[in-house]
Amino acid sequence: MRRLSKQFGANQILNNVSFDVAEGEFCILLGPSGCGKSTVLRLIAGLEQPTAGSIVIDGKPVDHLAPRDRDIAFVFQSYALYPHMTVFENLAFSLRLRGATAAEIESKVRDAARLLEIDALLGRRPQELSGGQRQRVALGRAIVRQPKIFLFDEPLSNLDAALRATMRLELARLHRRLGATIVYVTHDQAEALTLGDKIIVLHQGSIQQMGSASEIYHKPANISVARFVGSPQMNLLEGRMDDNGVIFHCGGLRLDLSALFKRPLSRLAGHALTLGIRAEDLQPTGDQQSWLHGEVELVEDLGSDRFVHLKCNDLDLVARAGRDLELLQGETIGLNVIPSQIHFFQDEGRVEP
After folding, report:
1. Which pLDDT band holds residue 76 (cuts at 50, 70, 90)?
2. Statement: the pTM of the whole predicted model exceeds 0.85
3. Residue 295: is it exposed, middle or buried by C-beta count within 10 angstroms (0-12/13-18/19+)?
4. Which domains does the chain carry?
5. Is the peptide bond before 232 cis (omega within 30 degrees of 0)?
6. What digits encode the pLDDT tens for the residues 11-48?
């Protein structure tokens, strides 16, 4: 995609969006509702026309081509299966439209059904299938076409949590088997972080950051990315460094950053800043000599994780707690942090201390 923009009336949906997807890459478009990610898919597919910019596939612009001529398969959120057709007929439909022979249709449908483990369902109709089975049929209908690019528009959002986790694994396996080029839209961080070779974070129609899951999570480019990626959300402390680069003033808190970094933060002295600390990097302790203290408001036990919600003066913070620390509502506990795990943001963008 080259400098792509899309406008509906006075509403700017996409603004100068450019990115490349390598052959065989699993590319995730991640962002909140209304950020423009589904519009990007519809532009690639030719279902919408860009206001400005160009779409290039295999080195050739395709803006002038109709959707059917772009060699793309689109898997929708709603499955979009034909209710009066059997699973076999749904899988075969696009091949019949293309004039494939009966033998070719039989072979490709059977191969796709075996790959997705739905070969026992070929005689059923969509209403006889579970949500997960319908999703597999929708995937199979795309696979039989053997397109250059697969486009997925939040395909797992209609499934329950357990089935979403199973289907994420199935999609990862499917990508490895097919070596397919995939552009996948989601607002679900777990899908993005587990599936994507490359993640593109969108916000208000613009790209905020592109990179691997590790880069997006551990080095967010700005506050928008830091706030959106991660569950629970990153703790964000807004305040100002003193003129000596020693004390960070945040509400009623005075945090000595020089004690953590063993030096004054001269580059940040006198600047308004936002400090970001992920819950797993904020370490609860019974030590009263800790860097920060907070009052326990709620302990959220999720089985695999335990999160403690704290009130630190007028700030609400979340920390991940170990099983060996007893936490009682209303008590004050200490909190430590590793300096390298503090993220600094100035004027929305990431800065180094």
Report:
1. confident
2. yes
3. middle
4. 2-228 (3.40.50.300), 235-351 (2.40.50.140)
5. yes
6. 999 999 999 999 999 999 999 999 999 999 999 999 99
